[in-house]
Design brief:
By secondary structure, the protein is of the alpha/beta class. It is built from 14 helices and seven strands. It has a seven-stranded mixed β-sheet with strand order 3-2-1-4-5-6-7, with helices on both faces. Strand 2, helix 6 and strand 3 form a beta-alpha-beta unit.
């Protein structure tokens, strides 16, 4: 157990105000993150650090160091022909999850979906991936990994994060954890600055990194969006608009409950099915199984 006095110097780096706060070195950040995950720091100090770190503003080195420590704890399960999807842990609010429909379209192409989730984290208060996976029959090419099993040390932070009720630095770095050693990862980003952060943090961890700037920061396409593709050190951006494929989907103006989300996928409308088909076509293009999204759309049939 790290004593209060031993942790205090680290806490001061993020908790003494704009003039005296400073970024931590990678070695310092690794010491802190290991101590957190091993529960060697008092919960009150953990909470104080998380708030101070968020207010100070996280550096890329601090994020990178934290991810490297995560690697020491995550229980990996390599999965061939898989794509890792990085869904946010604060859930979805105004769109259903359509990955069960996407997975069905991809079955015949030998593409496995690697998904990971857990308890709801602040601050959106949406429906979680975990809730969907626990209440929906999954296809044989869909693999769900629960945080309580693959990363129990971070799972134990759920109570502290829930009590804080605010978005924390973990929200940024917990979405892609390389559980299945996938060559390709797809992550969603709502704000442009996060696209740049994700490129810096994850480009060397996957052969191909895909960032979808779409709805609610998820890796699912519901409306016109930009897709950033990072491969072999090259960065390319493409645009995708469902209307170009004759899809006229409108998101809900109200919050969607878990029950409604499940029902929409169980009995999908024609527009939702076409959206899922488009998402599958994008994946075929990204995995080089189609030369274009249009060709992928045709291949699905």
């Amino acid at each position: 157990m790290m004593t209060t006095e031993e942790f205090l110097p680290y806490l001061k780096t993020v908790g003494t105000g704009p003039k005296r706060n400073r970024d931590l070195t990678k070695d310092e950040m690794k010491i802190i993150m290991r101590a957190f995950l091993k529960q060697e720091v008092l919960p009150e100090q953990v909470s104080a650090f998380l708030l101070g770190w968020r207010v100070k503003g996280e550096s890329l080195d601090e994020f990178a160091a934290s991810i490297e420590v995560f690697d020491e704890f995550v229980q990996q399960e390599p999965l061939e022909n898989s794509i890792e999807f990085g869904y946010p842990y604060d859930g979805k609010v105004k769109n259903p999850y359509i990955f069960p429909l996407i997975a069905k379209y991809l079955q015949k192409f030998n593409i496995n979906l690697s998904l990971h989730g857990g308890l709801l984290q602040p601050a959106k208060g949406g429906t979680t991936l975990k809730e969907i996976c626990n209440n929906t029959p999954l296809t044989d090419n869909t693999y769900y990994f629960d945080r309580s099993e693959y990363f129990p040390e971070l799972y134990e932070f759920s109570a502290i994060r829930a009590k804080l009720g605010l978005r924390s630095s973990f929200n940024t770095i917990e979405k892609l954890l390389n559980i299945t050693q996938s060559n390709t990862a797809i992550i969603g980003a709502f704000h442009k600055p996060f696209v740049e952060k994700y490129i810096a943090l994850f480009k060397d961890r996957y052969k191909k990194l895909v960032i979808i700037k779409g709805n609610e920061g998820t890796p699912e396409i519901f409306s016109k969006c930009a897709i950033t593709i990072v491969e072999n050190g090259e960065v390319e951006e493409i645009k995708v608009d469902p209307k170009d494929f004759g899809i006229m989907y409108s998101k809900s103006a109200e919050r969607i409950s878990l029950e409604t989300s499940l029902e929409l996928v169980k009995n999908p409308s024609d527009e939702l099915l076409k959206l899922a088909k488009l998402n599958a076509a994008v994946i075929l293009f990204l995995t080089d199984k189609a030369e274009s999204i249009e060709e992928g759309f045709e291949l699905i049939g």
